[in-house]
Amino acid sequence: METVCVENKIFDKTDFAQKPLPKGEYENCTFIACELSNADLTDFKFSECEFLSCNLSLAKLTRTAFRDIKFKECKMLGLHFQNCDQFGLSLGFDVCNLTHSSFYRTKLKKTIFKSSQFHEVDFTECDLTSCVFDNCDLAGATFENTIIEKADLRTSFNYSINPEINRMKKAKFSLSGVAGLLDKYGIEIDRTS
Questions:
Q1: Is residue 189 scored above 70 in pLDDT?
Q2: From CA 186, how far away is CA 114, in angstroms rounded?
Q3: What are 113's strand-pairing partners?
Q4: What residues contact 61, with CB distance under 8 A and at least 6 apart?
Q5: CA distances for 24 relative to 33, 63, 92, 135, angstroms
Q6: Residue 12 pairs with which residues in a beta bridge?
Q7: How far apart (Å, rounded) are the C-alpha atoms in residues 7 and 130?
Q8: What is the pLDDT of residues 11-29, one digit of tens each?
Q9: Is 102-179 a domain of CATH 2.160.20.80?
Q10: CB environment 7-20: b (16+ within 10 A), e (fewer)
Q11: Does the N terminus or the C terminus of the chain have fewer Cβ atoms within 10 A?
C-alpha cells in the first residue's frame, strides 16, 4: 500500500471515521476538530504537528511516530503510547483528557502536561524525568518503578505515589499534595489544621 507525504496542510473538521486518513508522513500539519477515534494509525509518522480539539480516543498507535507533537483540548481516551515508535517521541498536552491511557515504559523526559486529566492512566516504569504536570488531575494514575526525578507536580492533584517504589529525587510537590505520597500508609491527614 502506497504511503503519502503531506506537509503544511490544515485538516479542519474532517471525519476520518468516514474516510480514513491516508497512511503516510505528516509534517508541520494542523488537525482541527478532527474525528480520529478508533483510527488505525499504525506506521504513521507525524512531525511538528498540532492536534486541536480532536478526538483520538482508542486510536491504534502501533509503531506510530510522534515527533514534536502538541495536543490541545483533545479527547484521547484509552490510548497505548507504549506501542508508538519510541525513537524521537516528543509530546505536549494542554487541556486534554487521557483517561485510561497507558504510557507503560515510555520515555517522556521534559514533557509538559498542562491542565489535563489523567484518570486511571498507567505510568508504570515510565521515565518522567524533569516533566511538568501543571494543574493536572492524576486520580487513579499508576506510578510503579517510575522515574519522577526532578519532575514538578506542585500544582497537580489527586495523585497517589509510593516513594518506596519510585525514583523521586528532587521532584517537586506542594505541601497540600504531600498526602498523595503517604497514601500507602493509610494514615489520616487533617487538612483543616
A1: no
A2: 30
A3: 93, 133
A4: 41, 42, 79, 80, 81, 83, 84
A5: 20, 12, 22, 35
A6: 32
A7: 31
A8: 999 999 889 999 999 999 9
A9: yes
A10: eeeebeebebeeee
A11: C
Per-residue pLDDT reduced to its tens digit, 128-137: 999 999 999 9
Q: Which helix (H) or strand (E) holds 93?
A: strand 91-94
| pLDDT in the model for residue 18 | 87
pTM over 0.85: yes
What cell does 158 get?
Answer: 489527586
Cell numbers at 127, concatenated: 521515565
Mean pLDDT over the full length of the chain: 94
SS3 of 125-153: the string is: CCECCCCEEECCECCCCECCCCECCCCEC
**Residue-wise pLDDT tens digits, 42-90:** 999 999 999 999 999 999 999 999 999 999 999 999 999 999 999 999 9
Topology adopted by domain 1-92: Pectate Lyase C-like (2.160.20)
Separation of alpha carbons 27 and 3, rounded Å: 14
Nearest to 169 by CA among 138, 124, 110, 129: 129
Determine the 3-state secondary structure of 40 from DSSP: strand
